[in-house]
Amino acid sequence: MVLRIGSDESLKGDTFGGMVVAAVKADDATRALLEDMGVKDSKKLTDHRISLMADRIKEVSQVFFVNFFPEEFNKEVALYSLTGVLNKLHTKCTNTLKSASEEVIVDQYPGCKVDGANCLTKAEDQFVEVAAASIVARAEALKQMQELSIRAGFKLPLGSTHVLDALVRLRDKKLDFTKFTKTSFRNVQAVMNTTKQENLNNGGGI
Q1: CATH number of the domain within which 38 lies
Q2: 20 to 30 A Cα–Cα from 191, which one of 83, 156, 178, 182?
Q3: Where are the alpha helices (DSSP H) in the chain?
Q4: Residue 203, pLDDT score
């Protein structure tokens, strides 16, 4: 019997939101169930399908995830860098599920260095556990974005393109960028710097 843990993340490249990292552990029987469910990379599934499949994955598999909202994410990145945070969270998720000699697979990202893991490119296409982890991470990311949209008072966009209007709206509502966005992103800093300059021009502090 082969025991394997797969790990993946969501929201890493999105302007709004923090980051979610998830790991899924499966044996031969569980792996067969996941495959029968049609588990595959979350990018190939609709949001509705992702939510339904994530619930089912949690029922049949061992799952652990970490859900960082933007404020915590920004603090961690300032301390460890994005790569450092990724390595830290993937290690935490996989080690939490690991008990003995499980094979650990992490979907490759630049600087991937996770304790006892193989970091492989397009791992979600090769291992159903990684695909399952991508689904769980995406489902939790969608929940996070819904919560942040409620807090902001308008729907926050996913992705990193076509987000300028939302950033400007966030600025105009005088909301704290650290609680909604990745403040290390250039497009976020551009709008934040505009806000600071306007404050200076109006005689206010930064």
Answers
A1: 3.30.420.10
A2: 83
A3: 28-36, 47-60, 70-97, 123-126, 128-152, 164-172, 186-201
A4: 39
